[in-house]
Amino acid sequence: MTQTIKHDVADLSLAELGEKRIKWSAREMQVLDRIRQRFSKEKPFTGKRMLVCAHITAETANLAIALKEGGMESCLIASNPLSTQDDVAAALVKIYGIPVFAKKGESAETYVKHIEIGLDSKPQVIMDDGSDVIATLLKERPGQIKDIIGCTEETTTGIVRLKAMENEGVLPFAAIAVNDSKTKHLFDNRYGTGQSTLDGILRATNILVAGKVAVVVGYGWCSKGIAMRAKGLGADVIVTEIDPIRALEAKMDGFRVMPMAEAAKEGDFFITATGNRHVVDLEHFKNMKDGAIVCNSGHFNLELNLDALADISLSQEEVKPFVMEYKRDPNKSFKAGSVFVLGEGRLINLAAAEGHPSAVMDMSFANQALAVEFLVKNQDNLAKKLQTLPAEVDREVAKLKLDSMGVSIDSLSSEMHEYMNSWTIGT
């Protein structure tokens, strides 16, 4: 099989380890497994080709396996140069027969090359993570657009880009905003990002969080989870925001709220998760304490202006895996000493750790699998716009997850149902 499956992975000899990792994560992904079993019987994707741009992790592998059992011919590429688990990539190729083009630590040039290879596979459905594939398709390969049924997008960052495409009138097919499903962002973004981000920081640095000042940049669902977990480990959490409603929410959740220019002077470590660029900028790096730790848990590393940091630094040195020390030039900085950047400013939870726990990705990838099915089944009736999965799909995923956890809930009685749907029944 290794001779016939095209691939570009780090080391096929890691396949056995990767298979064990995939099977371990599958134990926590029972909702996706139920969908896989149905796909295996119904084969809804027979004859269809798909490009999956995602973090190549054990959880993604289980999604790819479920799609394959449903008849889908998939090609997998990495959505981030540092997020690939090389053993998982090897197992997908060697054991499961799924083409993968991804290596942990791949260069920017290789990352772009893999996008091109993925599009060369002539996909009809695209599962994107950040919308780099869709952007490349629109800018460089307009001739392929006519063959695309639609796409799914998992991230907040990617949805922002798809909305911009729609607003400019250039989105040429239906796009499913998987991130907008409640069983995705309320759990994956909050609990998954919160836990895995702190996990990545601790694996990279082994710092004691208790007693430290943690600055969380932004207060969307990902940042809410990060702030919650940092507080749970004993940090004094500062939140910075541009949205008055979210800032007010952070304040009432018990966090200090202030502008980034002020927080920069207080923080011991900084975590960004905004989806915007240069939210930690030159003026902030100049004012940070000696020994300040900076990392990003948003999709792209451009949240940190690392070029500006380099410009005010005398040297850069990797002092341990995923930890780069920038020694600031005292003539160019308000504060002397070093700033430590984790994971090259890329997703710290995937660069230094293993990403979100399988149990939470179970719901996210259940949504992804069902979104692909929705696109294929409704391809002739979908508007060329960004849209969410029907609410009943969201509820079904939640019901399946509760069932897998052994949790039962109440249901409305006929009397309750009548009351909830009537305006004539009063007090």
Helix percentage: 40-55%
Tell me about the biggest sheet?
8 strands, mixed
- State the end-to-end CA separation: 70 Å
Overall residue-averaged pLDDT value: 96
**Structural class designation:** alpha/beta
Q: How many strand segments?
A: 15
- By DSSP (H or I, 4+ residues per run), the number of helices equals 17
Lateral strand order in the biggest sheet:
9-8-7-10-11-14-13-12
Which spans of ≥5 residues are poorly predicted at pLDDT below 50?
Answer: none
What share of residues are in beta strands? 15-25%
Account of the 3D structure:
There is one protein chain. The chain is of the alpha/beta class and 427 residues long. The chain has 17 helices and 15 strands. An eight-stranded mixed sheet has the order 9-8-7-10-11-14-13-12, with helices on both faces. α9 links the parallel β7 and β8 (236-240). α1 (15-26) crosses α3 (58-69), α2 runs parallel beside α15 (358-377) and α8 crosses α15 (358-377). The longest helix is centred in the middle third of the chain and has 24 residues, at 182-205. It is globular and about 65 Å long.
